[in-house]
Amino acid sequence: MEKSFVFNEWFNYEKFKIGDVYKKEILNIPSFPAIANNNGIYDINIDKDVKLTWLCCNIYQLKINGGGLLSKIPEKPINNLFFNYKIYNPNTTINNGYIINPFGFVSYAPILNELSYGSCYSYKDKKIFVRVSDPFSIVKSQECLEVKRAQVKNNYYSIGPLQFNVIERFSSGKINIYETNVGTLFTNNDIALLFDHDNEVFLKIPYHDISYHILYPFKFFKFHSRKLDFKTNAFVLNSEIGFVSNYEIEIKFESGILNINSKKPFYIVKGGILRSFNVLMEINTSFPYGYEFINNIRSGYSSVVLRGITNKTIEFEIFNVSDHNSIIEILPKTRTEKIEICSHLGCYDILDSSGIYRIPSPSGCYCKAKIYLSHESSIKNKLLSNLKG
Question: pLDDT averaged over the chain?
């Protein structure tokens, strides 16, 4: 499997470079060595005299004037690490047919952009889309429904320990929109999109010290603090509430007050680090044309996303941002030959067992999985006929 940047749209090294020389900040990204190796980066120049050569497993070889030293990457992480994510487009050879969910999890996150697919909800001058669909399945679509003003049953809406004073409520089926004291919340299946808010949002929480996780590409690291101030794309409070944005969000905390500074809409997710990371991936990915090629998938603690479809292969990216090792089980709908797995440690093949592929996904995994379709594959034939057309 060829080396290529893991979601180059999501993680751009250029902000850490001046010409061909890297800034020393790159050493304070805890997950950098694995990402570097997985993307074909085997050495970097810090300045004219210092060169780092990556081995694996957070170990690097430091060369100064031709000398050598083995050491571990610094454990103190960079305080402000965020990216303005670009939309990721899975590379498929299919340009007609059905729009499919490219993820190994159910899609729920609301999207505040105009889309040509999914369930549409009209609220005042805005259209909000929800791409409800099972893993690797066809996305359901509907004409835009106008949400109607509904009775305010409670004067507040809660997401875990967070409470929002409700002014107005609008509803359509399971979808609710709350106009609150801090902004407007569009809620669906424990995922809330906050928009039309002030740049600074102040939230009271019943804690004077907190444990929290910060996302470093692509793993969450846990910290504990009584006071904090940092910038990130994903922050999870006490393993229960996530704050997610494809732009920069600044998080401050002191004396029971959580201050979130964001000029753009952001998401509040009831769930831990896996749910928050899945929302980050979902809001930054365009759903492609495709076929339902997976019968069943169990992802465990991992996140699986379609990378591409050709007439010979189906390729995925696999991430495990948790502290737990995991196993992914995939049951394809079509006949296959094998799965090739590549990580920063190398590539190897996996054969199916009773039609099921079991893929190891250790904590911190940034892996590529490529399913090789058999010659008789019905999907392969569909793809070939599509290419000829």
Answer: 83
